[in-house]
Design brief:
Blueprint lengths: L2 H8 L2 H8 L2 H19 L10 H24 L1 H7 L4 H4 L4 H20 L3 H18 L9 H29 L6 H20 L5 H6 L5 H5 L1 H24 L7 H19 L7 H27 L2
Helix pairs in contact: 3-4, 3-9, 3-15, 4-7, 4-8, 7-8, 8-9, 9-10, 10-13, 10-15, 13-14, 14-15
Length: about 300
Protein backbone atom coordinates (compact mmCIF):
# COMPACT_ATOMS: atom_id res chain seq x y z
CA UNK A 1 0.00 0.00 0.00
CA UNK A 2 1.59 3.32 -1.09
CA UNK A 3 1.52 6.53 0.96
CA UNK A 4 -1.49 7.99 -0.90
CA UNK A 5 -3.51 4.80 -0.35
CA UNK A 6 -2.51 4.73 3.32
CA UNK A 7 -3.59 8.36 3.74
CA UNK A 8 -6.92 7.67 2.07
CA UNK A 9 -7.54 4.65 4.29
CA UNK A 10 -6.73 6.64 7.44
CA UNK A 11 -9.20 9.30 6.32
CA UNK A 12 -11.91 6.73 5.59
CA UNK A 13 -15.03 5.80 7.56
CA UNK A 14 -13.72 2.24 7.77
CA UNK A 15 -10.55 3.28 9.58
CA UNK A 16 -12.58 5.39 12.03
CA UNK A 17 -14.82 2.39 12.66
CA UNK A 18 -11.74 0.23 13.27
CA UNK A 19 -10.54 2.71 15.92
CA UNK A 20 -14.06 2.89 17.37
CA UNK A 21 -14.05 -0.90 17.82
CA UNK A 22 -10.82 -0.66 19.92
CA UNK A 23 -8.61 -3.08 17.91
CA UNK A 24 -6.81 -4.60 20.91
CA UNK A 25 -10.16 -5.73 22.35
CA UNK A 26 -11.26 -7.10 18.97
CA UNK A 27 -8.06 -9.14 18.72
CA UNK A 28 -8.49 -10.36 22.30
CA UNK A 29 -12.09 -11.41 21.66
CA UNK A 30 -11.19 -13.13 18.39
CA UNK A 31 -8.36 -15.12 19.94
CA UNK A 32 -10.43 -16.12 22.97
CA UNK A 33 -13.13 -17.50 20.65
CA UNK A 34 -10.52 -19.34 18.57
CA UNK A 35 -8.62 -20.61 21.61
CA UNK A 36 -11.68 -22.06 23.34
CA UNK A 37 -12.83 -23.63 20.07
CA UNK A 38 -9.43 -25.35 19.71
CA UNK A 39 -9.60 -26.61 23.30
CA UNK A 40 -13.14 -27.91 22.72
CA UNK A 41 -12.10 -29.82 19.58
CA UNK A 42 -8.80 -31.13 21.01
CA UNK A 43 -10.40 -34.48 22.02
CA UNK A 44 -12.01 -34.70 18.56
CA UNK A 45 -8.86 -34.45 16.46
CA UNK A 46 -9.67 -37.68 14.58
CA UNK A 47 -13.19 -36.55 13.64
CA UNK A 48 -14.29 -34.00 11.00
CA UNK A 49 -14.66 -30.59 12.69
CA UNK A 50 -17.41 -28.24 11.45
CA UNK A 51 -16.18 -24.64 11.03
CA UNK A 52 -19.62 -22.96 11.27
CA UNK A 53 -19.82 -22.93 15.09
CA UNK A 54 -16.53 -21.02 15.17
CA UNK A 55 -17.60 -18.47 12.55
CA UNK A 56 -21.05 -17.86 14.03
CA UNK A 57 -19.70 -17.48 17.56
CA UNK A 58 -16.99 -15.12 16.37
CA UNK A 59 -19.51 -12.82 14.64
CA UNK A 60 -21.81 -12.69 17.67
CA UNK A 61 -18.91 -11.93 20.04
CA UNK A 62 -17.42 -9.26 17.76
CA UNK A 63 -20.76 -7.46 17.59
CA UNK A 64 -21.01 -7.62 21.38
CA UNK A 65 -17.46 -6.29 21.68
CA UNK A 66 -18.22 -3.26 19.49
CA UNK A 67 -21.39 -2.55 21.50
CA UNK A 68 -19.51 -2.55 24.83
CA UNK A 69 -16.51 -0.44 23.79
CA UNK A 70 -18.72 1.86 21.70
CA UNK A 71 -21.10 2.57 24.57
CA UNK A 72 -18.13 3.44 26.76
CA UNK A 73 -16.96 5.99 24.17
CA UNK A 74 -20.43 7.55 23.93
CA UNK A 75 -20.41 8.17 27.67
CA UNK A 76 -16.75 9.26 27.92
CA UNK A 77 -16.40 11.84 25.14
CA UNK A 78 -15.14 14.62 27.42
CA UNK A 79 -12.69 12.29 29.19
CA UNK A 80 -11.49 10.80 25.90
CA UNK A 81 -10.68 14.26 24.55
CA UNK A 82 -7.98 14.34 27.24
CA UNK A 83 -6.98 10.68 27.61
CA UNK A 84 -7.64 9.27 24.13
CA UNK A 85 -8.10 12.16 21.65
CA UNK A 86 -7.53 9.80 18.68
CA UNK A 87 -10.85 7.99 19.21
CA UNK A 88 -13.41 8.83 16.50
CA UNK A 89 -16.07 10.62 18.59
CA UNK A 90 -13.51 12.55 20.65
CA UNK A 91 -11.69 13.49 17.43
CA UNK A 92 -14.91 14.56 15.66
CA UNK A 93 -14.63 11.82 13.02
CA UNK A 94 -17.95 10.32 14.16
CA UNK A 95 -20.94 12.27 15.40
CA UNK A 96 -22.73 11.17 18.56
CA UNK A 97 -25.62 10.06 16.37
CA UNK A 98 -23.35 7.83 14.27
CA UNK A 99 -21.91 6.32 17.44
CA UNK A 100 -25.40 5.62 18.81
CA UNK A 101 -26.45 3.90 15.57
CA UNK A 102 -23.35 1.69 15.58
CA UNK A 103 -23.84 0.76 19.23
CA UNK A 104 -27.55 0.05 18.78
CA UNK A 105 -27.14 -2.06 15.64
CA UNK A 106 -24.19 -4.10 16.94
CA UNK A 107 -26.00 -4.76 20.24
CA UNK A 108 -29.07 -6.09 18.44
CA UNK A 109 -26.98 -8.16 16.03
CA UNK A 110 -24.95 -9.65 18.89
CA UNK A 111 -28.11 -10.87 20.66
CA UNK A 112 -29.68 -12.10 17.41
CA UNK A 113 -26.66 -14.12 16.24
CA UNK A 114 -26.17 -15.53 19.73
CA UNK A 115 -29.84 -16.50 20.13
CA UNK A 116 -29.96 -18.53 16.91
CA UNK A 117 -26.87 -20.53 17.91
CA UNK A 118 -27.81 -21.83 21.31
CA UNK A 119 -28.58 -20.98 24.93
CA UNK A 120 -25.00 -20.92 26.20
CA UNK A 121 -23.77 -18.43 23.60
CA UNK A 122 -26.88 -16.29 24.15
CA UNK A 123 -26.17 -16.33 27.89
CA UNK A 124 -22.53 -15.29 27.36
CA UNK A 125 -23.47 -12.41 25.05
CA UNK A 126 -26.50 -11.22 27.04
CA UNK A 127 -24.67 -11.18 30.39
CA UNK A 128 -21.60 -9.52 28.83
CA UNK A 129 -23.74 -6.79 27.27
CA UNK A 130 -25.59 -6.24 30.55
CA UNK A 131 -22.33 -5.89 32.49
CA UNK A 132 -20.86 -3.64 29.77
CA UNK A 133 -23.93 -1.43 29.97
CA UNK A 134 -23.77 -1.20 33.77
CA UNK A 135 -20.04 -0.40 33.49
CA UNK A 136 -20.53 2.67 31.28
CA UNK A 137 -24.11 3.91 31.49
CA UNK A 138 -25.48 6.27 34.18
CA UNK A 139 -26.95 6.12 36.73
CA UNK A 140 -25.09 2.88 37.63
CA UNK A 141 -21.80 3.63 35.78
CA UNK A 142 -19.67 1.12 37.67
CA UNK A 143 -16.47 2.44 36.10
CA UNK A 144 -16.58 5.21 38.72
CA UNK A 145 -15.71 2.70 41.43
CA UNK A 146 -12.32 0.91 41.26
CA UNK A 147 -13.45 -2.41 42.73
CA UNK A 148 -16.61 -2.72 40.62
CA UNK A 149 -14.86 -1.51 37.46
CA UNK A 150 -12.16 -4.16 37.83
CA UNK A 151 -14.77 -6.81 38.69
CA UNK A 152 -16.70 -6.04 35.48
CA UNK A 153 -13.64 -6.47 33.29
CA UNK A 154 -12.16 -9.62 34.77
CA UNK A 155 -15.51 -11.35 35.31
CA UNK A 156 -16.42 -10.97 31.63
CA UNK A 157 -12.96 -11.65 30.17
CA UNK A 158 -12.25 -14.37 32.70
CA UNK A 159 -15.19 -16.42 33.89
CA UNK A 160 -18.07 -15.60 31.55
CA UNK A 161 -16.19 -15.79 28.24
CA UNK A 162 -14.05 -18.83 29.04
CA UNK A 163 -16.60 -21.05 30.75
CA UNK A 164 -19.53 -19.89 28.64
CA UNK A 165 -17.84 -20.26 25.26
CA UNK A 166 -16.37 -23.64 26.14
CA UNK A 167 -19.83 -24.87 27.21
CA UNK A 168 -21.28 -23.50 23.98
CA UNK A 169 -18.73 -25.25 21.75
CA UNK A 170 -18.87 -28.44 23.79
CA UNK A 171 -22.68 -28.49 23.61
CA UNK A 172 -22.74 -27.79 19.85
CA UNK A 173 -20.02 -30.31 18.97
CA UNK A 174 -20.55 -33.10 21.50
CA UNK A 175 -23.74 -32.36 23.49
CA UNK A 176 -21.41 -32.53 26.48
CA UNK A 177 -21.62 -30.13 29.43
CA UNK A 178 -18.60 -31.28 31.43
CA UNK A 179 -15.84 -28.71 31.99
CA UNK A 180 -12.39 -30.39 32.15
CA UNK A 181 -9.63 -29.25 34.50
CA UNK A 182 -7.66 -27.60 31.69
CA UNK A 183 -10.51 -25.15 31.06
CA UNK A 184 -10.74 -24.32 34.77
CA UNK A 185 -6.99 -23.61 34.88
CA UNK A 186 -7.18 -21.39 31.80
CA UNK A 187 -10.20 -19.59 33.27
CA UNK A 188 -8.39 -18.89 36.54
CA UNK A 189 -5.32 -17.67 34.63
CA UNK A 190 -7.36 -15.31 32.46
CA UNK A 191 -9.47 -14.19 35.43
CA UNK A 192 -6.43 -13.01 37.38
CA UNK A 193 -4.66 -11.74 34.23
CA UNK A 194 -7.73 -9.66 33.35
CA UNK A 195 -7.62 -8.14 36.84
CA UNK A 196 -4.08 -6.94 36.09
CA UNK A 197 -5.30 -5.44 32.80
CA UNK A 198 -8.22 -3.79 34.61
CA UNK A 199 -6.03 -2.00 37.14
CA UNK A 200 -3.24 -1.18 34.67
CA UNK A 201 -5.53 0.38 32.05
CA UNK A 202 -6.07 3.49 34.17
CA UNK A 203 -2.38 4.33 34.71
CA UNK A 204 -1.99 6.29 31.43
CA UNK A 205 -5.45 7.87 31.86
CA UNK A 206 -4.88 9.51 35.24
CA UNK A 207 -5.08 13.07 33.89
CA UNK A 208 -8.62 12.82 32.52
CA UNK A 209 -9.84 10.59 35.35
CA UNK A 210 -8.69 13.14 37.95
CA UNK A 211 -10.44 15.95 36.11
CA UNK A 212 -13.76 14.08 35.92
CA UNK A 213 -13.55 12.48 39.39
CA UNK A 214 -13.24 8.86 38.21
CA UNK A 215 -11.76 7.22 41.33
CA UNK A 216 -9.41 4.58 39.92
CA UNK A 217 -6.84 2.51 41.79
CA UNK A 218 -4.13 4.65 40.17
CA UNK A 219 -5.58 7.82 41.68
CA UNK A 220 -5.96 6.17 45.09
CA UNK A 221 -2.59 4.35 45.24
CA UNK A 222 -0.37 6.15 42.74
CA UNK A 223 1.27 5.02 39.49
CA UNK A 224 4.28 3.13 40.94
CA UNK A 225 2.16 1.08 43.36
CA UNK A 226 -0.38 0.04 40.70
CA UNK A 227 2.39 -0.71 38.19
CA UNK A 228 4.15 -3.00 40.69
CA UNK A 229 0.88 -4.62 41.72
CA UNK A 230 0.02 -5.43 38.09
CA UNK A 231 3.47 -6.96 37.53
CA UNK A 232 3.22 -9.20 40.57
CA UNK A 233 -0.33 -10.27 39.69
CA UNK A 234 0.91 -11.29 36.22
CA UNK A 235 3.86 -13.08 37.83
CA UNK A 236 1.41 -15.03 39.96
CA UNK A 237 -0.51 -16.03 36.82
CA UNK A 238 2.55 -17.37 35.02
CA UNK A 239 3.97 -19.07 38.10
CA UNK A 240 0.68 -20.87 38.69
CA UNK A 241 0.56 -22.05 35.07
CA UNK A 242 4.17 -23.27 35.28
CA UNK A 243 3.20 -25.32 38.35
CA UNK A 244 0.23 -26.76 36.43
CA UNK A 245 2.71 -28.01 33.84
CA UNK A 246 5.34 -29.24 36.30
CA UNK A 247 2.85 -31.22 38.38
CA UNK A 248 0.83 -32.38 35.33
CA UNK A 249 -2.43 -31.06 36.77
CA UNK A 250 -4.17 -30.74 33.38
CA UNK A 251 -4.35 -32.68 30.10
CA UNK A 252 -1.77 -30.60 28.25
CA UNK A 253 1.76 -30.96 26.88
CA UNK A 254 3.60 -30.07 30.10
CA UNK A 255 7.01 -29.35 28.58
CA UNK A 256 5.58 -26.95 25.99
CA UNK A 257 3.43 -25.21 28.62
CA UNK A 258 6.24 -24.75 31.16
CA UNK A 259 8.76 -23.43 28.62
CA UNK A 260 6.36 -20.96 26.99
CA UNK A 261 5.06 -19.62 30.34
CA UNK A 262 8.60 -19.19 31.64
CA UNK A 263 9.62 -17.34 28.48
CA UNK A 264 6.57 -15.03 28.72
CA UNK A 265 7.31 -14.29 32.39
CA UNK A 266 10.95 -13.38 31.72
CA UNK A 267 9.98 -11.31 28.67
CA UNK A 268 7.41 -9.38 30.73
CA UNK A 269 9.89 -8.44 33.46
CA UNK A 270 12.52 -7.49 30.90
CA UNK A 271 10.08 -5.14 29.14
CA UNK A 272 8.90 -3.66 32.45
CA UNK A 273 12.41 -2.42 33.26
CA UNK A 274 12.25 -0.08 30.25
CA UNK A 275 9.10 1.78 31.38
CA UNK A 276 9.40 5.36 32.60
CA UNK A 277 6.26 6.05 34.64
CA UNK A 278 6.59 9.76 33.94
CA UNK A 279 6.10 9.15 30.21
CA UNK A 280 2.50 8.48 29.22
CA UNK A 281 3.51 6.98 25.86
CA UNK A 282 5.78 4.42 27.51
CA UNK A 283 3.05 3.39 29.96
CA UNK A 284 0.55 3.06 27.12
CA UNK A 285 3.06 1.01 25.11
CA UNK A 286 3.59 -1.39 28.01
CA UNK A 287 -0.19 -1.65 28.46
CA UNK A 288 -0.47 -2.74 24.83
CA UNK A 289 2.36 -5.22 25.48
CA UNK A 290 0.33 -6.75 28.34
CA UNK A 291 -2.55 -7.17 25.93
CA UNK A 292 -0.19 -8.98 23.54
CA UNK A 293 0.72 -11.39 26.34
CA UNK A 294 -3.00 -11.88 26.89
CA UNK A 295 -3.49 -12.63 23.17
CA UNK A 296 -0.58 -15.08 23.09
CA UNK A 297 -1.97 -17.13 25.99
CA UNK A 298 -5.04 -17.96 23.89
CA UNK A 299 -2.65 -19.50 21.36
CA UNK A 300 -0.15 -21.11 23.75
CA UNK A 301 -2.65 -22.95 25.94
CA UNK A 302 -4.78 -24.45 23.11
CA UNK A 303 -1.60 -25.58 21.34
CA UNK A 304 -0.51 -27.26 24.59
CA UNK A 305 -3.89 -29.06 24.58
CA UNK A 306 -3.57 -30.10 20.94
CA UNK A 307 0.01 -31.34 21.40
CA UNK A 308 -0.95 -33.81 24.12
Amino acid sequence: MNQISQRRFKDSWLYSFWKFSRPHTIIGTSLSVLGLYLIAISPLSDSPIPPLPLLGTWIACLCGNVYIVGLNQLEDVAIDRINKPHLPIAAGEFSMQTGKWIVGITGILALFFAAIQGPFLFGVVAVSLAIGTAYSLPPIRLKQFPFWAALCIFSVRGAIVNLGLFLHFSWVLQKNLLIPSKVWFLTLFILVFAFAIAIFKDIPDIEGDLLYNIKTFTIKLGKPAVFRLALWVLTLCYTAMILVGLFKLAEVNSIFLVLTQLFALIWMWWQSQKVNLQEKNEIARFYQFIWKLFFVEYLIFPIACLLL
